[in-house]
Amino acid sequence: MIPAPVPEEKVSGGDDVAPVIGRKIMILVDSSLEAKNALQWALTHTVQSHDLLVLLYVTKPSSSKQDEDSKKEINPRIFEFLASMKNICKLKRPEVQVEVAVAEGKEKGPIIIEESKKHDVSLLVLGQKKRSMTWRLIMMWAHGGRVVAGGGGGGGGGGGVVEYCIQNASCMAIAVRRKSKKVGGYLITTKRQKDFWLLA
């Protein structure tokens, strides 16, 4: 994991900061609509005032073969993006503590699982794209019925990444997908429930 800048709240004092007594909730964020919907859902349906939010951004390793110091440098736009996501959280839920984390790796699914364990979160929230039944059947057939860690595009991970995280997370993992603009509500997927419609 590449260390993210320390939030201002943690730099000052030390003894002044009240210990977190609520849950730690990790939300996978990126620039996709699915990830933004998942963040919106978490802020309105899951997060409580005493919880700590960890916004995780996963980036691919840099392809250049320069020295180790340059590999540790992350695109400043990522931190600008995370600052804007943190700001959204603070505007919507000012009483909630928010941290950001950036992880780097080729396989998005295992990185997300590793980070959720490292941060000792009790809930992992991911955005999910709508995938057709045909696509899901082809993916299952191609991988011998196994759920794979890769596959799929962005949106907090494609179907493969999201399914991998749901099946392999040591904490509760929830995939969130907005139903539609006309109907409203969200489709929630967990290890035990698939596409549960939450009208809200």
Automatic annotation (TrEMBL):
<dbReference type="InterPro" id="IPR014729">
    <property type="entry name" value="Rossmann-like_a/b/a_fold"/>
</dbReference>
<feature type="domain" description="UspA">
    <location>
        <begin position="23"/>
        <end position="177"/>
    </location>
</feature>
<protein>
    <recommendedName>
        <fullName>UspA domain-containing protein</fullName>
    </recommendedName>
</protein>
<dbReference type="Pfam" id="PF00582">
    <property type="entry name" value="Usp"/>
</dbReference>
<dbReference type="InterPro" id="IPR006016">
    <property type="entry name" value="UspA"/>
</dbReference>
